[in-house]
Amino acid sequence: MALVCAGLVSLWAALGVQQHALAWTARFGALCAAAAAALYAVLQAVDGVALKQAVDAWVAAPEPEKAARFAAAEGIRWLEWGVRSYHSILLGSALVLLGVVVGVTRHVSRTIGWLMALSGLAYMVQGWIIGDSGFSAANALPTLAGIVAIAAWTAWLFVSAVRMKNTTPAGHPR
Question: Pick from 85, 87, 71: which is nearest to 32 by CA?
Fold first, then answer.
């Protein structure tokens, strides 16, 4: 996730947008990506540390304490849902904003930008569902759509970037 968010911030810098409104859209996209990276770190602390400790304490607790320990673990799980929800919404916002900029600037195929925006919408829907009902089956379709769209636009963007680098005359910055 750190690489994805760093890549989005790098994309903002690489686009070098000068138009006022579009430049602000790209900046907000980069800020959303940076905030999503920070929230992902918090998510790993909640899920990977706090929840594990709470579940281990619940399993090891004597029978009279099990209900209280389970309630604590459940509360941490709900906190995980909340952090994941906000992370997905911020990451989706970054993808939508930067996707619009890519689509409008036409440095690469406009379709790449619209696929970015589509993957962002899928992440935003995931965030909404997780915030509403946790990790549920209702999230399967937006998750699949987001994964497919991200795989498509990242591969296409990579190929486009390699082609640009190979076709740019020496001494001419792109």
Answer: 87
SS (H, E, C) 47-72: HHHHHHHHHHHHHHCCHHHHHHHHHH
pLDDT, tens digit, 9 for 90 and up, residues 9-55: 988 888 888 888 999 999 999 999 999 999 999 999 999 999 999 99
**Residue 75 CB neighbours (<10 A):** 13
Q: Which pTM was predicted?
A: 0.87
- For 135, which DSSP code? S
CB 108 within 8 A of CB 153: no
How far is residue 52's CA from residue 45's CA, in Å, rounded to a whole number? Answer: 10
Q: Using alpha carbons, select from 140, 127, 95 the residue that is nearest to residue 114.
A: 95
What SS3 state is found at 106?
A: coil
Largest CA distance in the chain: 75
